[in-house]
Amino acid sequence: MKATMNHTLEHEESLVAAGRGKWSQSGVPHRGWRCVDIEDLGEPQVQCEMCESQTIRFIHHMEHPNYSEVLEVGCICAGHMEGDISAARIRETSMKNRAGRRKRWLTRKWRISAKGNPWLRADGYRITVYERGGGWAATISSEDNSSVQHSRRNYNTQDKAKLAAFDHITRLQPSSDP
Ligand SMILES: [Zn+2]
């Protein structure tokens, strides 16, 4: 597993060096990007939108003030885009370490709130999912109520909203899990 992952990272590094995909396309900024989300697809299944070559499992969602779209990219492309390879690696490693917990996330004991919404307490947060705009959204509140965050998009199933909330919490605590 580890060898496979390192191989993936080395391969994407060579794709960046070779200027594949958007790395050689004019009008696409090469630095100054910011990671706004990270997602685990469970297995490699989509193509990195930056090098347009690497098949990726962990999607780093990257945003840039001078580019209209959020790009879904692999670890190494993300690292180069934000100018910090180790930050991207730490993010991805933390996500990988939490993969086991993520598998069990949906079968944990979700309680039902007074409004009929499933909720769960985990890692110092209270996570609630609820119907919004014909789909499902998630709210993540810190236990002390100092912060409340709502998912930006709606998901077509309750499970997807729950998993998105899990991934968001993972991103909030990049180095908490060994
Ligand atoms: Zn890439």
By DSSP, the count of extended strands is 10
The low-confidence runs, each spanning 5 or more residues with pLDDT under 50, are none
Strand order of the largest sheet: 6-7-8-9-10
- Counting DSSP H or I runs of 4 or more residues, the number of helices is 5
Question: Any overview of this molecule?
Answer:
The strands form three sheets. Strands 6-7-8-9-10 form a five-stranded antiparallel β-sheet, with helices on one face. A three-stranded antiparallel β-sheet has the order 1-4-5. The protein has five helices and ten strands. The chain is 33% helix and 29% strand. With 178 residues, it is of the alpha+beta class. The protein folds into two domains: 96 residues, no CATH class; 71 residues, Transcriptional Co-activator pc4, Chain A (Roll), CATH 2.30.31. The model has no long low-confidence stretch (mean pLDDT 90). Zinc ion (ZN) binds next to helix 1.
Observed structural traits:
178 residues; binds zinc ion; three-stranded antiparallel β-sheet; single chain; elongated; Transcriptional Co-activator pc4, Chain A; five-stranded antiparallel β-sheet; alpha+beta; 10 strands; 29% strand; 2 domains; 33% helix; 5 helices
